[in-house]
């Protein structure tokens, strides 16, 4: 259009300064499936529906992203009361707000410059919030001590993860930093590694054994990687995204021993720490296990762990709250980290306030306690119910096989795609599971993410589906997936 | 400590995975004076004071950072009412909130998934907010059209600036991307360029002519840079930070012509667009001037302009709201930009909501209009008063010379440092103006940023001081600066 217009006006056509050929080549390599082409098409379909265009469905159901509130989950009343009080402190005089919400808001505002959430905080985060985070971690980990100086508040967990990866980048060619990530993985990792120009080292989770992590597979991946890069870090997501497994304590010990032996910086993505549903499963933090393994490990293994306000029972993604805890980091490096985060001034203060509430919720005896517990329990038990429902229904479909959703917010079932469909996809230059998901979107309005966006063993196909839609809608969605899969299989057989 | 402890336990001392020698070398090069060593010392001093330690002052006054609320500026009531309503929608039933605040909150919530600020937004930002931003720009620029698709909401302006610089990185050695920045500059630019590994090309503002921008100096800087890198972008801050000048329309036209002729991508940092105080000065957006220069320019020159909720009359830094407008960007690059921002999911939603209120404030006839205008006017006229006061008092001091603070929130006076003081500083391995500011902090509790953190012509010394403290405190602060300077000069003469 621009070119045409210029010609019309008789002006010389001039190449842009910034073109696809002259832009940052590492940015071009970035991919992020959770918001990729399938979601763009979902947005288009929603627009077409709203313009009255006829479709074989009446609404698009977004099961592509872990966005609980968008799927109707209600926020925790206490959290929102405190945020409203902090936003508009005039409300501190309003007698309809409970006293504990007021005292919490008062405490947060006192930690803000000029008693306003509109002030910048310290770049590492508000002191009192970091103290509350430290106490939360101590309670969670059965008393293992936590120093508020080791806590950095972040803009969601993503921000902390990218910052830590950035610190680790070093070397060129065969000395380039390599980072081990699970396959399947959450594509923030592959995207960040691509952008930073690091080597992505894939270790495969064992689908046959409930997406478990196998040390021999870690060793294989590491040994191969050592031939062409310098592996420096090992990333773990527990509970797993997209795979929904919850790691056993033994497995975590093995991983820590492996990291110690192989001198790898450990990064533990623990944003789903409250999302554990399966009987016999329990969340163990890497920090706790590390410290219970004794000083040989707790004094040496470098660990960063990440948490967020976006998941668990809160689902407050839009506030972009989060923290990371840094264990055994070299003091000079920590000073560099503090300097680095100062360039962006500070994480959003409402997100910091929310993080504070998450780690310091109403206590027994406080007026909001009962309601808080009721709301939290209700949200988590509905999620547990939906995790089970998803697994059950998907496993009734021939050609779909789904591991138990032990935790997190996703199922990642394996799907059988007929040979003819694979061929048609490849003819179109599409991954077979992208072809499958795109077709499902067009025919049913259900928006899933193809397994290829997360990585999977060659020749296997999957999709990621959140368990977040309300139970009745989830039931409909699962039935539609079932019908679609049967029809698709028939069509291409 | 760690090493000692290991020895005590008889464990083998083992080097860390991540050390200062093996961390990202570009991160080490990053510097950010606004939160540098002087601010760290200020924090220590505050702690020492609170612990009852005796100092020659009773409080630390932070004039180092443009953090209006921390200095006592009050938020706009309407903005905070709407944010409270959006945080806790139960309040929509509260009759004490004005109807226009409620309808604005209602509209924002309707644009959020599940009607909750806790949902992720589109990565580019909430549609309706981007539409409001576009209409705001059209009004501001006298009807020059603005497409909401060209608007990207950001996490403060810093986020947008770093993202744009990132896109521009390309090439190695003599083909490496170079970016022109003013000296003095806001150190976000130098920090981002260091981290990205780009070449920083300095062009000097003319202190003798009120920090004006001179095209011959741009040309000199560019021609020299072309010998060793590939200059691709030109960054302008208007109104200026740290220098407080407001660019004339003619100057902006010259810059645009220069960018067109030399094929440079223009980045206009316009976060102080409402902060114009001096008679005869007026804010002209680069967008408006570009479009009034006719299609030869408006169809070709690539421009990104940046705005934020942190400055102007709002001063809402903690919310990290902002937007950028992208003009004439290549479509493929724009698709890459959209993909890149999707990795971080979305800017904080409360910051997006606040940005919406800034671009769509109460209108005449609405219940909150009069109070909004009253509050905005009061804040801006107090700032204008303080800008004048700062300039006046500083210019009464022999050895300090201060250009008019035409806009923004800072004075950047030149200071004469006696030869003996320079020698003592250099002996200590300190920049002379760092030595000066550190001494002022220790003796008076006033926290300023040395000019060396922003860059300055060799052999000249400055400091940046915000005009944000309340008028009475600012008066005291200015007098203390005066006394300190006189004493310092005497001591080292």
Automatic annotation (TrEMBL), chains A, B:
Catalysed reactions, as listed in the record: L-alanine + 2-oxoglutarate = pyruvate + L-glutamate
CDD domains hit by this protein: AAT_like
GO molecular function: L-alanine:2-oxoglutarate aminotransferase activity; pyridoxal phosphate binding
UniProt cross-references to Pfam families, sorted A to Z: Aminotran_1_2
Pathway: Amino-acid degradation; L-alanine degradation via transaminase pathway; pyruvate from L-alanine: step 1/1
UniProt key word Transferase: yes
Keywords: Aminotransferase, Pyridoxal phosphate, Transferase
Cofactor: pyridoxal 5'-phosphate
UniProt-listed GO biological process terms: L-alanine catabolic process
Domain Aminotransferase class I/classII large: 98-480
The keyword Protein transport is annotated on this UniProt entry: no
EC number(s) from the headed UniProt entry: 2.6.1.2
Segments passing through the bilayer: none
Subunit structure: Homodimer.
Protein family according to the UniProt entry: Belongs to the class-I pyridoxal-phosphate-dependent aminotransferase family. Alanine aminotransferase subfamily.
Name under which the protein is recorded: alanine transaminase
Lineage start: Eukaryota, Metazoa, Chordata, Craniata, Vertebrata
Originating gene: gpt
